[in-house]
Amino acid sequence: MNKRRWLVILAVGALFLLSVRLAAAQGPNDQCLVCHGVQGMTTTVGTEKVPLYVDPAAFAAGKHAAAKCTDCHSGLNPTPPHNANRIYGSWARFSVKDTDTTKTRNFYSVEASACLQCHTDARFQAFLKSDHATIKDLKNTPDGHPRVERKVTGSDGKEYIVDENFAANDCERCHMQTNCGTCHWNSPVLQKTQGNILERWTDYSKDADTIKSGQSEFALDWTFNVEKHDFRSAAELKATNDVCMACHIGYYQGAKSVPAINVLGMGVRRHPQ
Fold first, then answer.
1. 162 Cβ partners below 8 Å, 6+ apart?
2. I need a surface site. Which of 50, 119, 249, 250 has the fewest CB within 10 A?
3. In terms of DSSP bridges, do strands 159-162 and 106-108 run parallel, antiparallel, or are they unpaired?
4. Sign of the C-alpha dihedral, residues 87, 186, 71, 55?
5. In 10 A of CB 21, how many CB atoms?
6. Within the chain, which residues score under 70 in pLDDT?
7. HSE on the CB side for 38, CA within 13 Å?
8. Among 262, 141, 157, which residue's Cα sits nearest to residue 149?
């Protein structure tokens, strides 16, 4: 039997096995788990392998056991590769615009509109008016115009940049629309350069600036938790500053001659120290 015929037989056999598993699927999530319940299942984004395996037992023991996969992962085509609206980010940092969209560590395919289909009580309605939910609105100035960088000349004759552009593929590394998973998805918080940035806070040497810049770069490895689909509770978020620090410890020394343009702070543009 020639090689081509063997390949046809193998392909037909694989399709038959898949159809048997689909036929055996009963619950609303079982069809998804026909593929996503296979250990070792991954996809490739850029040069990185993204895990797609979901442990059925771990998911059944989790906070969203009663939910259908499509309740959260809405708007997907029913057959792979689904054409999901995946949004990527890289190292979250206030001082550098890093728009590397090939990294998978800040990767999600669920937005808050799906979360709010179930989470409808007063607490979540209040959240929609909070700073964390409306932070995306900083893409516009108070008069409604898009934010853009402006160059001004100070009284010392030097040129300074005032304000920042709001670029979705940059700013939404942290300000990810109203995506609840930014904080609640249970992913490890990674620091690019180990150490306590506050220990060098008032050291403005070139070497210290380099070290502090790395120590202010954090990433949330969103691909780590796919297997268990575990979520942090409000109590867990209050127990540690790790998640908050990933966004709120940005370091940007900026220009030391800021009084020349009558701006309070040390040239931090919109992000304060």
1. 149, 150, 151, 152, 261, 263, 269
2. 119
3. unpaired
4. positive
5. 16
6. 1-26, 84-108, 135-136, 168-178, 250-260, 262-273
7. 9
8. 141
Residue 170 near residue 149, CB atoms below 8 Å:
no
What pLDDT shows up at residue 23? Answer: 41
Q: What angle do CA 135, 245, 64 make, to 5 degrees?
A: 70
pLDDT score recorded for residue 231:
92
How is residue 160 written in tokens? 């300074």
Long-range contacts of 264-271 (CB under 8 A, 24+ apart): 267/160, 269/161, 269/162, 269/163, 269/164, 270/138, 270/147, 270/163, 270/164, 271/94, 271/95
Tell me, yes or no, if the pTM score tops 0.85: no
Other C-beta atoms lying within 10 Å of the C-beta of residue 194:
7
C-beta of residue 266 within 8 angstroms of C-beta of residue 258: yes
CA distance 183 to 189: 10
pLDDT digits (tens, 9 = 90+) for 181-239: 878 889 888 888 888 888 887 787 888 888 887 888 777 777 889 999 999 998 999 99
DSSP label of 261: G
Taking Cα atoms as reference points, which of 61, 67, 3 lies closest to residue 32? 67
